[in-house]
Amino acid sequence: MIHVVFLAAFLALLAVPADAMSLTGPARVIDGDTLDLGGRRIRLAGIDAPELDQSCRNDGRAWPCGRWAGEQLAARIAGRDVTCVATGEDRYGRLIAICRTGRRDLGRSLVQAGAALAYRRYSMDYVRDEAEAAQDRRGVWTGEMRQPEAHRHPTADAADRH
Asked: Is the pTM for the entire model greater than 0.85?
């Protein structure tokens, strides 16, 4: 009987859509906007961070803003459990989720620090936070950065810089 109950509970979990899924536990940072939580890749909803191999320019000198963005995410987690509530799934099979440590929205915190941009193509949630970071010249807003999406697709126009 216990096997039947366990099997029924397991099958019910499989039927839960990605946008209703919630995961909590220790997370490993993949890059500035991607985590691994319990073996599942999670892309932070509504943000786009510089790629790990991406450099920005500040006072005419290159600096590793992509690596810095990943370090910013790692600092915000700092060994604490992360709770992610999925809003969907992307074409690569990653969960798209709003993730928190305690009450802190990790995506919002990264955008506020200038470690990520509001990803307007998918969400307008962090646009105000980005505008404030840009006005205050925080993080990537201290110099020049190619949009992360343009960095991923090198054939994009050079007008994708800020």
From this structure: no
97/74 Cα distance (integer angstroms)? 17
In angstroms, the CA 147 to CA 144 distance is 10
3-class DSSP assignment, residue 24: strand
pLDDT of 93-112, one tens digit each? 999 999 999 999 999 999 99
Q: Distance between CA atoms of 72 and 114, rounded to whole angstroms? A: 10
Instruction: In whole angstroms, give the CA distance from residue 114 to residue 123.
Output: 17
Report the SS3 class of residue 150: helix
Pairing of strands 40-44, 95-101: parallel
Token code pair at residue 10: 């397991």
Q: Which residue would you say has higher pLDDT here, 39 or 15? A: 39
Q: What is the 3-state secondary structure (H, E, C) of 84-132?
A: EEEEEECCCCCEEEEEEECCEEHHHHHHHHCCCEECCCCCCCCHHHHHH
